[in-house]
Amino acid sequence: MNKDEFANKIMKYKDNMFRFAMSYLHSESEAKDVVQDVLVKLWETRAELEEKNNMEAWCMTLTRNKSLDALKRAGRKMTSSIDLMNNTPVTESSSPLQVYSDKESMMFVNMALKNLPEKQVDTFTLRDMQGYSYLEIGEMLGLSIDQVKVNIHRARKALKKELSKVYAHGN
């Protein structure tokens, strides 16, 4: 694989890789470092990349593993990837009430996600927030499609239960 092929086949995933690393690390500089490390590793092993069936899934798997390694080295635990959503941009058409309501809702979702197992958070994030298919998520996380579906279902069910409590009782 030459430089142009690498750019066409791998570099197109770097933004997704960055967002995925950010979902673990919550630090732009650390996420950039992880993506750079993954891209270097991919370049160094480019001769073996032709064997990979789904290049995006392979890139995301490497990004996930490097992100988890970075968290372990820093002695930190994974936090919810939904934290990034708390920084959603405000548009001109957003009313102050809508902005407050959105931020408050995201805070409650974030609190609920922190109580879920890591696989549920990962599958939920990849499916409902980043739009990956069940097959792609399975390949990224090393899970069967049935396991992906079960984890997403359980995450959604737990979130629904927690959020219904919050909105019914106010805390």
Annotation keywords:
171 residues; mainly alpha; Rna Polymerase Sigma Factor, Chain: A; Arc Repressor Mutant, subunit A; elongated
Concise structural overview:
The protein is mainly alpha-helical. It is built from eight helices and no strands. Helices cover 70% and strands 0% of the residues.
Describe the structure.
The chain has 171 residues and is mainly alpha-helical. The protein has 2 domains: 3-74, Rna Polymerase Sigma Factor, Chain: A; 92-169, Arc Repressor Mutant, subunit A, CATH 1.10.10. Helix content is 70%, strand content 0%. The protein has helices at residues 3-9, 14-25, 28-44, 55-74, 96-113, 118-129, 134-141, 145-169. The radius of gyration is 18 Å and the shape is elongated. Residues 79-91 have low confidence and may be disordered.
The computed structural class is mainly alpha
Per CATH, which architecture of the largest domain?
Answer: Orthogonal Bundle
Percent of residues in helices comes to 55-70%
Number of domains: 2
Radius of gyration: 18 Å
The largest sheet, given as strand count, sense and whether it forms a barrel, is: none
Poorly predicted runs of 5 or more residues: 79-91
Shape: elongated
Q: H/E element string?
A: HHHHHHHH
Supply the number of helical segments.
8
Distance between the amino and carboxyl termini = 55 Å
CATH topology of the largest domain: Arc Repressor Mutant, subunit A
Q: What do the pLDDT scores average to?
A: 80
Number of strands: 0
Could you name the CATH homologous superfamily of the largest domain? Answer: Winged helix-like DNA-binding domain superfamily/Winged helix DNA-binding domain
CATH class of the largest domain: Mainly Alpha
Classify the beta-strand content into a percent band.
under 5%
